[in-house]
Each structure stands twice: as structure tokens, then as C-alpha cells.
Amino acid sequence: MSTSTSVSGKGLLLKADSIAATFRNEVEKTLANCSHAPKLVGILSTSSSPSRTYAEFTRKQCESLGFKFVLKETGAALPNEGLGEGEGVEEAIMEANEDDSVDGVMVYFPIFGPQQDHYLQQLVSPYKDVEGLHVKFHYNLYHNIRFISPSSLSIPTASATGSTGDEAENDIPPPGMVKSILPCTPLAIVKCLEYAGVYNKILPYGDRAYGKTVVVVNRSEVVGRPLAALLSNDGARVFSVDIDSIQEYTKRPSDSDSSRKYHPRHIVRPPPEAYNTLEACLAVADVVVSAVPNATYKIPTAWLKDGCVCVNVAAEKNFEKDVRDKASLYIPAVGKVTILMLLRNLLRLQQYKNVSPSSTAGSPAQ
């Protein structure tokens, strides 16, 4: 187990290796039962060094586990071709959508910026979206729809067809249904918290984070906001902190609204007045997750609750060096778990074809 404690009284340092090993074994066993190795196409269309590094990391992980990986380079990723940033990326996505030999597509973002990149995310067929960024998967995430029929992805508009899982005792889909795809990084963070014991397995499935207060710093559409929804849909009280506001995510009614029925999915409201600052939220947080892409941003250790669990998601360290003086457990990175969530999604997308082959082959983005 990749953990360490250096000084008596310091919290545990939990590296991602030991968490990733659990899912690596799962992926290897699932892959061994596949009729053929799934094929993932990565599309790199920028000159960004971090994007190329991530593409090469993906290649190494795929090859080490026996997956097929093809890197499609276009635009500024081809420096000698004189092409601009993102040039040709739409065509590359559409070609991969139409190629029946391709099981999954991932595009290395950012490319143009949030708005145009969002369009590109919707261009990827939901049947091949390993990152879970398509609106159909986001709809399921935010409405707490956990199990779906693959054929529902062909419906032109989002619908509530599916199951929340409230009636299930575990995470096994009902007959004829499969798990919906979730965004890789938020899912990786949830898996890290499960491994760390934040989730209570004695509680009913779908409510195992009940009783925990979580602070998520940065409300991005890729990590922070979907993570807040996932955790609150599992029963946690979540304070989502962004540069200009704080929001409270919860699946339960407030004390002042006791007549309101239990919510099967999260709701978002302004926080109580007592929790309108980051410092106040951190003082009660059992878990703190930070994903701020800024090397100078640091969460003050003095503001943390004694014994909390801290998770750093950003490439830069968002916590001060003495974070373990307050935190009982500190996870400095989740990247190795994220890539395995991506490969689990790839296997799941191949399963979609097996469950409903006529509806998935060559399916365009909806």
C-alpha cells in the first residue's frame, strides 16, 4: 500500500498507486473476458505540451493493459503542416464516430475555449464518449439516473428514461440495463473517497456519503460541478466554492422546510448565512477536494477541520506543505485512478454494443 507517515501526529499520505491497483485488477479481469480488445482513438489537435503528455500517458496505460490505442494528430499537433490550433478536429471526431472498429473516442482539451470545446464534446457519439462529457451522460448524472438502456442514447433529446438505483441494494444494473457513463476525474475522486473509508458501506446503496460534509473548491463543468452532484446524490452535504460564489448541494430538505419530501436527486441553493465564506465551510468539512489550476493558490492549513480528508486534484498543489498537521489523510493526486476510470468506461461502452448492437454501430452524435 503506497502510504507513509513520517512524524508522529501527522496524517496519512495516501498515494494513488494503491487505489489504482484495485481498479487495474478489475480492468484486467474484465478485458480478459472480452471477445476482442477495445480500441480507443485519442484526438490531439493542439500544440499544448500537457495535452501531448496526457496522450502519451494514455498510450502507455492502454498498451500495458492490452487495449488498442491510436493517436490521431491534426491541427497544431502537426508542427510541420502549418495548421492552426484545432484545425481538422471536427473531421477527426466524425471519422472516429463512423468507424465501427472504434469503441471509444477522447479529445484532448482545451482547444478553442469553453464554449467551442463544449460543442466538440457534444459532437462525440455518446456510444463512444469515454469521458462522459456528452449532454446525455451529464443529464443522467445531474438527475441521479444510474442505470440506462443503451438504446436510450439514440433518443434525440434527453429524457428521464432509466433508474436512479434507489430500489437496488448494490451497484449491479437491473436486467437489460447498464451503468451510465460518468466523467472520469469526478468518478476517480469518488473512488478515492470510497477507498479511504469516507463512504459508509453499512448504509443503503446511493446514500453512503450521508452524514459527511464536503467542500469542493472550483466549480468547473469538467470536475467541480459534476463532483458536487455525484457526492450530494450519494447523500453528502456539499459546499461548492468558486471564485465568485458558494453553493450548497444536498439531496435532503433544509430544517426550515421539513414538510418537503426527500429528493431522489440533489438540489442547489445558496448556503446558510453562517457558511458564506470558504473559511467557514472548511471549519465543518469532513472532506476537502481542491481542483484550482493555479500554482499560487493554497488552502490555509489553519482553516481545516482537525481530522479531515484532503484530496488535491489540480496539477499544482492546492494545499500547504503542512496540510497533514490537520488532515488525517491526504491524497496528493488522482491521475492514475482517472486513467483507469477512463478504461472502465471504454469497457462499458463496448458492453453497450453487446447489449444493443443494432443501436450502437456507427451511431452519430445526437
UniProtKB/TrEMBL annotation:
Coiled-coil stretches noted in the UniProt entry, renumbered to this chain: none
Gene3D superfamilies the UniProt entry points to: Leucine Dehydrogenase, chain A, domain 1 (3.40.50.10860), NAD(P)-binding Rossmann-like Domain (3.40.50.720)
Top-level lineage group: Eukaryota
GO MF terms held by the record: methylenetetrahydrofolate dehydrogenase (NAD+) activity; methylenetetrahydrofolate dehydrogenase (NADP+) activity
Pfam families from the UniProt entry: THF_DHG_CYH, THF_DHG_CYH_C
Biological-process GO terms, alphabetical: purine nucleobase biosynthetic process
Domain Tetrahydrofolate dehydrogenase/cyclohydrolase NAD(P)-binding positions: 183-245
Start and end residues of each Tetrahydrofolate dehydrogenase/cyclohydrolase catalytic domain: 15-131
GO CC aspect terms: cytosol
Protein's name according to its UniProt entry: NAD(P)-binding protein
Organism: Lentinula guzmanii
